[in-house]
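anyone seen this seq b4? input:
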Amino acid sequence: MSSEFVTFAAIGALAQLIDGSLGMAFGVASAAMLLSLGLPPAAVSASVHYAETFTCGASGISHLVAGNVRRKLFFSLMIPGVIGAVLGAYLVSHVPATWMRLALTPYLLGMGVFLLLRAHRNPGHSDEVLAGTRPLGLVAGFADAVAGGGWSALTVTSLVARGNTPRLVIGTTHLAKCVVSASASITFLIHVGASHGVAVLGLILGGALASPFSALFAKVMPARAATLMAAIAVLGLGLSNVVKAFQ
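predicted toks r here
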């Protein structure tokens, strides 16, 4: 087993533990760490989406069986999310890596601040599909494909803050994310190819091995502390990109 594979598996495991604690951030956390290793943005996003097609698929099906998926909300997010993901994957595949790295730095910094603010949000208890859900899915799908993560951070936080029941939001967005990731993956396969297979397999294995421990980690680690840790990590990587840009 190569040291490179172990590194990617460790990234997948750490990202899964963060995701298990927050209900989100597997994509943005793993993408940020892969970017810090020097992988091109297109390869990072492609690798994360290849892996998430499997991880989110398992999670989404589990939520569907448990009754945590709302059909109307699913389609309101999934259809525009797929459109946004295909457009985002096409863009990141054809823009020079240096330009994308500079463009992603504000996104990483913004996501770090976003996670910091999330700890102060109060959960809602409504089951209505509110206006603006389709544009939210379009923007989240596009941003997720471009940056390699952020779908759940944008959709879950926005919908819960607007009054939707957390378990239904999490279950529905995870199932929609599976379809969105698959659409982005197909686009990346066409334009980028099946490169960086070691990274993909490492993320999948690491995430799978960490999954049984993520629920335990969520019980032990206070939600606010986990949110702050994830926010600091993403902010740190974003600031690191700023420093590198001026070197």
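The chain has one domain: 3-245. Residues 166-191 form the longest helix (26 residues). kinda curious what u guys think
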